[in-house]
Amino acid sequence: MFCTKCGAQLTDDAKFCATCGTPAGQAPPPQVQTQPSLTPAAEKKYCYAGFWIRFLAHLIDQVVISIVGFVFFIIALVFTAGSVMSISDLADMEDPDPALILSLVGGWLIFVIVSAIAQWLYFAFMESSASRGTLGKMALGLQVIGRDGETINFARASGRYFAKFLSAMIMMIGYIMAGFTQKKQALHDILADTYVVKQRDSLDYE
Question: Which of 73, 88, 150, 173 has its C-alpha lying 20 to 30 A from 42's C-alpha?
């Protein structure tokens, strides 16, 4: 028989280990698996950003994206319709030309595709840049970083962006996780091993 703590050999009738004093036959306490966190050096500089401040940053980003997208949509609509006929002619026409309908539908699909790509590039480039965050995050002093406090690269920022679809697919629970996980991580943060933080020297909340 051997000690479960130090491995010393024990006699069959031993109740305690003569080396370390551990009761014979007592299993060592289980190792608790903790959620990965920032390194000690990074935790001295940053504090995890909570759900509501992240939500506000998201709203700012959506307002910016919506305004820019609306402007480009109007421009695209005018040019697309104008390539076939004027908007006034379209309003007076009871049976529009199929070519016009295809042109408008095609223009709309192109706009949707371009918008999706632009939104991905916006988040991925901004979060992997020196600013480490989108305009919404920058406005509130938030940054997206890796475990060592480093700036994440474009590929990792892209993975974090596309992982947001998983966060949204499960009834937005992936986003809500940022409100109750220990490190304030949403599902896409956990998958990308990233953290949304704010520097402690400018911290104005707990």
Answer: 173
Residue 75 lies in a domain: yes
Task: Please state the rounded mean pLDDT for residues 81-91.
Answer: 53
What is residue 206's predicted lDDT score, i.e. its pLDDT?
Answer: 37
- Where in the sequence is the domain holding 166, given as residue range(s)? 40-202
Phi-psi region of 172 (alpha: psi -120 to 50; beta: other; left: phi over 0): left
Helices 51-82 and 98-127: crossing angle in degrees, nearest 10, is 150
Residue 97 inside a domain? The answer is yes
| Residue 95 DSSP code | S
d(CA 191, CA 185): 10
* Per-residue model confidence (pLDDT) at position 205: 38
User: What string of DSSP letters covers 161-186?
Assistant: HHHHHHHHHTTTHHHHGGGTSTT---
Task: Look up the pTM and report it.
Answer: 0.71
Q: What are phi and psi of 83, to 5 degrees?
A: -75, -15
Predicted confidence at residue 82, as pLDDT, reads 57
Tokens encoding 104: 């408008």
Partner residues linked to 143 by β-bridges: 197
Taking a C-beta distance cutoff of 8 angstroms, is the pair 16, 24 a contact?
Answer: yes
Of 70, 66, 86, nearest to 78 (Cα)? 86
